[in-house]
Amino acid sequence: MKHEAKSVAAKSALEVPTEIEVQIRGLMMDPITNMPIVILKDVESEMVLPIWVGIFEANAIAIELEKTATPRPMTHDLLRDLTRGLNARVTKVVVSELRDDTFYALIWMEQQGEIVAVDARPSDAIALALRWDCPIYVNRDVLASSRVAANGTQNINPDELRKWLENLNDDEMGRYKM
């Protein structure tokens, strides 16, 4: 996908992909790669989706989860303030696609009755959603694709990984529990 905003005309319910609302269960460090993982959890089930993110993006998410004040606006604060200044509002973010082991997201905004979807990295979309206090969704196809991708992994049993993630206690999830 290009990095661009797209104006979206109203679609029928049949054209809109099914989305599952998730919340951030926590942030943790991958013990093997030492990369941060955002754990998204289905609000209606025990299903979880781990998304590996960069250090700076994890920090932006953690700052907002902990409601830590910063002396100057961080990038995602700037994006929130810029959006507000343009009389727009972020209505939701969606982890919309999994392609070549990379997650993609859309930030959905409304401005003067027009709906706009902006391509984003999931970590940036999540950080912005936290600042707008708007819902986070995952496309059902992404969940299915992530399960298929996990099934193709040679060294990790996907059922064991899922059970491990679902059964992590708050201490194992780090300070960023919800």
Molecular structure report:
Helix content is 30%, strand content 34%. With 178 residues, it is of the alpha+beta class. The protein has one domain (5-166): Bifunctional nuclease domain. The protein has an eight-stranded mixed beta sheet with strand order 1-7-6-5-8-2-3-4, with helices on both faces. Strand 6 (102-111) and strand 7 (114-120) form a beta hairpin. Helix 1 (55-65) runs parallel beside helix 3 and helix 2 crosses helix 3. The radius of gyration is 16 Å and the shape is globular. The two termini are 31 Å apart. The model is unreliable at 9-13 and 151-158 (pLDDT under 50). InterPro entries: BFN_sf, Bi_nuclease_dom. GO terms for molecular function: nuclease activity. Residues 19-150 form the BFN domain.
Give a concise summary.
The protein is an alpha+beta fold and 178 residues long. It contains five helices and eight strands; from the N terminus they run E-E-E-E-H-H-E-E-E-H-E-H-H.
Which helices and strands appear, and what pairs or packs with what?
Blueprint: E1 5-8, E2 19-29, E3 36-42, E4 48-52, H1 55-65, H2 75-85, E5 88-99, E6 102-111, E7 114-120, H3 122-132, E8 136-139, H4 140-151, H5 158-166
Parallel strand pairs: 5-8
Antiparallel strand pairs: 1-7, 2-3, 2-8, 3-4, 5-6, 6-7
